[in-house]
Amino acid sequence: MKKKSTGRKMMLRKFIKRLLKWSVLTSLVTFSIGWWIVPLFFDIPDEATASPEESQIILDRDGTPLHHATREDFVRHRHIPLADIPEPLVQATLAAEDKRFWDHGGIDFLATSRSIKDAIDNGHFVSGASTVSQQVIKLRSPKAPRTIRTKIREAFQARHLEMTQDKSSILESYFNHLEYGNRNQGPVLAASHYFKKPLDQLSLAECALLAGLPQAPTRHNPRNNPEGAIARRNWILDRMAEVYELPADQITRAKNEPLNLAPATQQYATPEIAELFQGRSDTTIQTTISKPLQDEVKAIVQRELQKLSAQNVNNAAVVIIDNATGEIITLLGSPNFESTLGGQFNAALIPRSPGSALKPFTYLLGFQHRGLHPATIIPDIPTFYAGERGPEEIVNYDRKHHGPVTISHALGNSLNIPAVRVLNQAGGPAKLLTLLKQFGFTSLGDNASTYGLSLSIGGGEVTLLEITNAFATLARLGQFKPSTLQQKDTAKQRVANATQCQLIAEILTNNNARSHTFGTQSQLRFPFKCAVKTGTSTDYKDNFCMGFTAQYTVGVWVGNIDNTPMQGISGVTGAGPIFHQTMLLLHKNQAAQWFPTPQELSTHAVDPHTGKILKPGHPRYPIAEKMTLLKPPEEASSHDYDSNQRPYLDQRYSKWVDSHKQVFAKASSSHLDSPLETLRILSPAAEATYLLNPDLPNSGNKLTLLANHTAIEWSSDTISISGNKATLILGRHTITARHKQTGETKDVNIRVEQE
Fold first, then answer.
1. Which residue of 338, 345, 355, 706 lies most exposed, with the fewest beta carbons within 10 A?
2. Per-residue model confidence as pLDDT tens digits over 413-471
3. What region does 697 belong to: left with phi over 0, alpha with psi -120 to 50, or beta?
4. Rounded to 5 degrees, what angle do the CA atoms 147, 151, 154 make?
5. Is residue 153 within 8 Å of residue 160, measured between CB atoms?
6. Is the torsion defined by CA of 544, 545, 548, 552 positive or negative?
7. 360: preceding bond cis by omega (within 30 degrees)
8. In sequence order, which ranges of 401-560 are alpha helices (DSSP H)?
9. Rounded distance between C-alpha atoms, residue 214 and residue 610, angstroms
């Protein structure tokens, strides 16, 4: 019996050994299948380790962020390789989320066991025990209910991910998908938002604080819950001490570090730049803007607007162009984006009236088409031109007339009457409009008659950006180059004669030439050669200050976005101080340069009332104006002046000189030729339409005819004219004016209709 019993025991042992052997083998096979085979049947999301879509960032010329837009989900993200993430941030994140990341294969069984035990003890899951790999799967998958089934699926997917991707790729994807709160995805923008630092400059405490945010970005938001964020940070620091055996004193110092958050400023510091790149798909756009310069100019504008607030001045804009490249290095469209007084508008791109700022182009036109030059004398006397509603008088800013003036004096002192006279002589608004288009003005329409002769004095609206580049074209001595916000080589196109452009530039640098209006110590005076021109609209809604050195062109606009007028602010008092400080800033560490003087140009002392050269020793030499000229005019002689050294004036000034006899003398045939002005019909206006109204006396058929001379004979083949009175009848008519002395004639066509 004993042998039998022993035999049974031996058989039982063999069976148990065999059973254990097969159980172990089965378990090993089952585990191997579950660990290596089954995960392959759980598809992982496409491009599981790919980085999220980046949001668009606009950089300055040196790579400094100017504007960071959001994606369509209103989140900002910039990708960062794992190698560029500082080790303390990696350690802090893994200590908080997955301390055995480098050792497990996608599933942390110890953490999972602890999670199951805690769930049994508490009746629900209190810790997910998800590894970084599982969280990558979760972040890359559509949202799903947090059930046991979901957890199992994500575990197998995580295992599949670990079988097909290396650890570094998984961890890099994880960091780039993390949400750090305040619409910042990934550690790059988190460091910038909370600390205004690049990642490699974060302290240990700052790394620990960032590592604590992804678990609950809203609850741990340091801006709303600093105590909670610090508590989470300190917990992570303790975990780091345990996991990575960091020195106790290092952890203590980190815990004692105060929470120094950067101000929660907007991510769009330069919205006027971003506006110009709307619709671009590029995620990184590098511009030509210099952010340090832009910031300094912005501070200048804010200070000056504060000074002008009592004069109802609320808005300003500044554009700076590098003349050599055409690159825009500053584009300030609004000094305060948050302002309710038009702060969201980019004033640099809004067409406004430039006032007198276009006059240099009028005189350039006169140089081109009429052979005029800086010493040419232009009559600044009462002047009328034909307008839609009858004769229109051109007036100067000071409402005065200055008699004979040189172009240098007229441009320097921004006189309106000479500018309009020159435009009329040089071909009228159509010629000027063509020239302005060549200089890059695109805001102006194509119909010159819309503007008339007032185009020379601000009758059309242009943007600050395009007028600044037009002045940059003058600074390039007539070579047009499109302005650009991105570094690219664009061809130059010659649109004006270099010498003539330099003559205009020399006038605009001459502080003495503008002293009559602006004085000798105005904001337009510089310690170096700088061309400057102001412009103020007649209704005080806009004023400009434009100018350049050889290196840079600066354009400034001051006014109100809502078009309300300023109170007595001109270009020299409004835009001038901003221009002055900006130009000095540009040349603070870079000496201002000017153009070399060509051999064909020379400087002469010119009588400002006759335009003739005065030699040293001449009785009138002290009043001479120094001018740079291409071809010197003739020298003044005794026949130009009476015995009291008063210059003789021809008959164009016959009425005006009567009130200025102490300074000027009337000319007679024995002294000077007496040129007459070209005949101009003032009324009716060319192609005017007149309506006959039966309710008016004589049905409104009487029309007074006017010209710029009195000795005129009027005639027409189709209507009756008596003296200078015409009797209108229905139809189209041609009226002729003939000067009785010279025989010069001019025609004008009109149309008469029934109202």
1. 338
2. 999 999 999 999 998 999 999 999 999 999 999 999 889 999 999 899 999 999 999 99
3. beta
4. 135
5. no
6. negative
7. no
8. 407-412, 416-425, 429-438, 464-475, 498-509, 515-518
9. 81
DSSP state of 200: G
In angstroms, rounded to a whole number, what is the distance separating the alpha carbons of residues 729 and 734?
A: 12
Alpha-carbon distance 363 to 411, whole Å? 8
Structure tokens at 555: 């354009």
Instruction: Report the C-alpha gap between 556 and 30 in whole angstroms.
Output: 78
- Residue of 133, 144, 207 lying closest to 174 (CA atoms): 133
- Cα–Cα distance, 688 to 356 (Å, whole number): 28
- The predicted pLDDT at position 403 comes to 93
For residues 402 and 325, give the distance between their C-alpha atoms in angstroms, rounded to a whole number: 41
Radius of gyration of the chain (CA): 41
Per-residue model confidence (pLDDT) at position 5:
66
Handedness of CA 196, 202, 208, 213 (dihedral sign): positive
Cα(first)–Cα(last) distance of the chain, in Å? 143
Report d(CA 476, CA 490) in Å as an integer. Answer: 14
Q: Which residues of 538-568 are buried (b: 16+ CB within 10 A; e: fewer)?
A: eebbbbbbbbbbbbbbbbbbbbbbeeeebee
Separation CA 652–CA 625 (nearest Å): 23
Segments of the chain scoring below 70 in pLDDT:
1-5, 7, 23-36, 38-39, 41, 111-129, 146, 266-269, 388-389, 668-676
With beta carbons less than 8 A apart as the criterion, state whether 183 and 219 touch. no
Closest CA to 229 of 181, 177, 175, 264: 181
- Three-class SS state of 519: coil
pLDDT at position 124 = 47
> CB atoms < 10 A from the CB of 198, how many?
12
Q: Which two tokens stand for residue 704?
A: 């007074």
Angle between helices 498-509 and 464-475 (to 10 degrees): 110
At 436, give phi and psi (nearest 5°): -65, -40
**DSSP 8-state code for residue 652:** G
Report in angstroms the alpha-carbon separations of 439 from 164, 532, 547: 61, 18, 15
520-526 — which CB contacts under 8 Å span 24+ positions? 522/572, 522/576, 523/572, 523/573, 523/576, 523/577, 523/579, 523/580, 524/572, 524/576, 524/580, 526/580, 526/583, 526/584, 526/592
* Amino acid at site 286: Q
- C-alpha distances in Å from residue 674, one per residue of 181, 449, 563, 649, 670: 83, 32, 47, 8, 10
Run of H or E including 204 = helix 204-211
